[in-house]
Structure formats: structure tokens, C-alpha cells
Write a structure and sequence with these properties.
Keywords: ATP-binding, Nucleotide-binding, Transport. The chain is of the alpha/beta class. The protein contains 9 helices and 10 strands. The strands form 2 sheets. Strands 6-7-8-3-9-10 form a 6-stranded mixed sheet, with helices on both faces. A 4-stranded antiparallel sheet has the order 2-1-4-5, with helices on one face. The protein starts with 6 loop residues before the first strand and ends with a helix. The relative contact order is 0.18.
């Protein structure tokens, strides 16, 4: 019996007018896997995430979750099926307290017990002590963790993260990366991580896919990608 990948993208194409931003990308991710997605600026990483999550309907290709074709589903419908994402910029509400907004997000995601779900997420991300704080009063690293909490409510099966370490210090990046790795393992969440911090990507990813000009350049374990001469030339540089 052939095993179907839990989350797959097949021959994805995205056009912006006459410009082909994504050109035939094929990606298969197993349940519980952390997959890094890297590439130079303009490689099409954010466009790829938008197409996978329903913010942009692809020109061609297919997105499957657990064998179901979800290519034409809207963002909300995909979220209800377990596909969640975060953005390069935090999506928190600065004037709302921490617990309230996580609870509301959990309720919107139709968690069975939104209050318990919200408290559990905050506790796992070391944010429960700030439950009554106004989100805007948190430090930036804590705001990034809160953003991750909002993406994790409702127990999604797939989590797509678009540069979650952006703007963080080295220490904050490593801390958030370890939270992410632990939560992915404990919750058996499939993660697609777009990130410029190579130490984070290589440190927590099971496999890494490299894009260049909208096309797949290479795929492999972190060690294989580090050693790949095409990747080093196109992106990583001699310091990789």
C-alpha cells in the first residue's frame, strides 16, 4: 500500500500577470515533520505560503491535506480543516489583554473548550503569567510567542510560519525555536517554516527545501543542504 504524504503541494504555479512567481513546486511533508523553506529574497517563499493557505488561488497545481484536495478552499475553510499560519508581522491586538485574545482566537477556531485551549497554549509558551497583561506591554520576543499562540489554538494539524524570528535577538530566536520544536513534537503538528535565520532552520528542521526564482533548487536534510554546492552558490555563501 502506497503511503500518502500528510501534506503535499503538487506542481504549484502562481502567476502575477505576466510574471511567474512560483513555477512547478512539488513538496511532500510527513505528519509531525518540521520542514524548512529557504531561498534568497524574491525566491517566492511568501507567495508560496499565500497559495498554500488560500490567500491566493494558484494558477495551476494542487494542495492536499490528508489526501483531500483543498486547492480551491478559502482561508477560513482551510483553517477549520487544520491549516494555520503566522505572518512576517505580528497579528496580535495590542490593546487587548493576552488571555482574552487567545481565548477569542480559540473560540473562532472552534476548539472544544476554548478557555482550556487558550490557557494550555499560554502555559506551554511561558506566557500564562502575562495572561492579564495588555499585549502591547509585552516585550517583542513575548509578542512573537503570543503570535505563535494565536496560530496554535484549536490544535491545527499544519502550521505555516512566515519568518517568525523576524526582529528578534539571537537569544530570543533560539528560545522561540526551541518552543516551536517542542510544541511540534508534543502536538504532532506538521510545520512549514520560512525563515532567514539559518541557524534556526538547520537547528530544528527535519528536512529543508530551497527555492530560487520560484523553482525548487534542492531538498534534503540540513547537513545535505549545507553541503550542496548549488545552494551555497545561490544563497548560503561561503560561511554556510
Amino acid at each position: 500500500m502506497i503511503q500518502v504524504p500528510f501534506f503535499s503541494v503538487r506542481d504549484l504555479v502562481v502567476d502575477y500577470g505576466g510574471v511567474r512567481a512560483i513555477d512547478g513546486v512539488h513538496l511532500e511533508i510527513n505528519k509531525g515533520e518540521i520542514r524548512g523553506l529557504i531561498g534568497p529574497n524574491g525566491a517566492g517563499k511568501s507567495t508560496f505560503i499565500d497559495a498554500v493557505t488560500g490567500r491566493r488561488i494558484p494558477t495551476a497545481g494542487q494542495v492536499q491535506l490528508g489526501g483531500e484536495d483543498i486547492t480551491q478552499l478559502a482561508v477560513v475553510a482551510r483553517r477549520m480543516r487544520g491549516v494555520s499560519r503566522s505572518f512576517q508581522r505580528t497579528s496580535i491586538f495590542h490593546d487587548m489583554n493576552v488571555l482574552e485574545q487567545v481565548f477569542l482566537a480559540s473560540h473562532q477556531a472552534q476548539a472544544k473548550d476554548p478557555e482550556r485551549d487558550a490557557v494550555a497554549i499560554l502555559e506551554e509558551l511561558d506566557l500564562l503569567q502575562y495572561a492579564d497583561w495588555r499585549a502591547g506591554d509585552l516585550g517583542y520576543g513575548q509578542q512573537r510567542r503570543l503570535d505563535l499562540a494565536l496560530a496554535l489554538v484549536g490544535s491545527p494539524s499544519v502550521l505555516l510560519l512566515d519568518e517568525p524570528m523576524a526582529g528578534l535577538t539571537v537569544t530570543e530566536s533560539r528560545d522561540l525555536a526551541q518552543h516551536l520544536k517542542r510544541l511540534a513534537r508534543e502536538r504532532n503538528v506538521t510545520v512549514l517554516l520560512v525563515e532567514h535565520d539559518m541557524e534556526v532552520v538547520f537547528g530544528i528542521s527535519d528536512r529543508v527545501t530551497v527555492l530560487e526564482l520560484g523553482k525548487p533548487l534542492a531538498e534534503g536534510t540540513p547537513d545535505e543542504i549545507r553541503a550542496n554546492p548549488k545552494v551555497r552558490e545561490a544563497y548560503l555563501g561561503s560561511a554556510a
